[in-house]
Records
---
Amino acid sequence: MTVLIDSWAWIEYFKSSEPGKRAKELIEGGRIIISTINVAEVFRHMLILSKKDAEDALSFMLKTSFVVPVSVKLAKDAALIKHEKKWGLGDSIVLATALQHGAKVVTGDSDFKSEPGIIFLG
């Protein structure tokens, strides 16, 4: 099974929270994709701790995941999702990426709670 680890799940993983411990099994044992938006969101969040923590987190993400860049088609699909669901653009890019790659989204973000194909940790 391919999973897209959402920024929410990465941050909880790096915090070693209870939801992060549940995400650990998927992060450390599966086929993972991430969007470039996840790279930006997690790196920015980890900068709150320190630049070294942010760099270490990014390095781990890049070693364990396949990064899906935002193509024109993906941007268009994300815009359609944003328009339809009235979500933020970041979440829309994540969902469009998962749909394009047949992946389940691992998250605790409440925007995704009622979506099909979600592994909800929250």
---
Amino acid sequence: MKFGWIMLLILAVARAGLAATPGMAINPAAGGQYVGVCARHFVFQNGLRQQVVYSGEVVATNAMGSLHCDKLTIDLPSQDSTNQQPTHALAENHVTVDFVKDADTNHITCDQAIYLYEVSKGETNDTITFLGSDSVPAKMQNSKGWMTGQPLVYDNTHGNFSGVNVETHFRIPASENNPSNRPTSQLPAGSSR
């Protein structure tokens, strides 16, 4: 399953924060996607470290889905940087991500979602890490099943999804050629699993 949409949603929110910084304007003719961010509070911190912080019932939405959390912090490149790629975003507390892919609703819950982008020695690190707590790990679920892990990590550079201490449960579609895979009600009389 691909999780690029998560990175795109967090990145879209980060870029929306960029658009809100002084001296920058949104150019609708340039294309792109619309992102909505609602929160009780918003702070833009300008200085050596530019940062946008949304807090209090944060909801970020775009055409791909939604991100809900208590606090969203986005680190922005310096104003003199030629690369406007946000380097770090942190969604904290009661984090949920919902999106529809291939007509299936996907739902992720965790305590933190951490987006990291950096280029070092010609290598790009572009990841999203989903962290739960010791007692409640990060969880991803849809109609096909669910998975937990502590952490779950999506590597956008390589398209890999991985986890540590993973537990996975999934449904195998029923098949006419595999009677053991049919629901119990369809097994011949007197049969058991």
---
Amino acid sequence: MNRKGFTLIEVMMAIVIMATTLVLLANSWSGAFNRLRKTQNNFEVAALLERKMAELELQYRGKSTDEIPELLEDGFGDDYPQYRWKMESSKLEFPDMSSLIPETPGGQTELLPAIIRQMSEAISNSVKEVRVTVLFNPPGTQKTLTYSATTYFVDYDKDVPLAIPSGGQ
């Protein structure tokens, strides 16, 4: 008998192999596309965050920390409608480290702990912590992704009141 064609089993096996290959290829391309889109979004967020931080540093450089508002929010305009930003500022809470000074026998005066307390308070009054957050609403989702960066503004012109306590000696 002279066979010039493929059997049904051979044709079915070829179709299964081709379908499996196409599914694997589609998954691979889909994963690469999703990673590429995520990388692009991360790049945009980093660039927008850097831009906003630079704008705020230029705006408040050399000014008193009292001029920095506690809260500001806005968008990035029509070019980036899915992104918006928020700035929050607060006084730096510097810990009181005077309690770490060990007491010395013989009734040492409170001079060193008092100076440390005053310096801690002066640092807290002259430094402001500023956190900038970029909020991203990916298209087609209800979730909001947030990315933040923090910087510190120092008011070098603030007075540092040093009152020396009178010792009892």
---
Amino acid sequence: MDFSSKLLENAVNEVSRLPGIGKRTALRLVLHLLKQPSEHTQYLSQALLHLRNDVKTCEKCHNISDTVLCDICKNPKRKPEVVCVVEDIRDVMAIESTSQFNGLYHVLGGKISPIEGIGPQDLKIEPLIQKVENGEIKELIFALSSTMEGDTTNFYIYKQIEKFRIMTSTIARGISVGDELEYADEVTLGRSIVNRIPFEQSIRG
């Protein structure tokens, strides 16, 4: 791809680093920005800089937050003894959109994936186990995607906390095997949360 401007080329190269954005899409986005009033680009730049410099991680659930504790963890109407284990903020947003869950979350920050070099030590698994050990949790809901990596992560956590004999459940398989939560429709995901099943039953298949 030949560029008439080095500035244009640099901008396209940076935008194309984003996941799912190829060079042609990046070029279209950059040209769109050039056509907009300059303040629009400034607002975008400022928003991204504020995000990168000021965003925090909730010290309790590890969700992305503007403050030390996220709004969900600070909400006194939530049930702190019921914790839903998810991969990242996209899953929190997907479940919250169903209005069917009133507990708290624990964001792992990923899934165990030996192929990608991601092990248990790379995720927020140890803090979750500590919550269970401290008696903070009565029910743990596994809400990772129905993939090999998701199932492996669920099983690893289950084996770590099995001796504490707390209630463990997993979202019902209204979510198809291999599907990511963020792509599930709200009704299906909501029913999967409400109709969750014991984790042991999911292992027996």
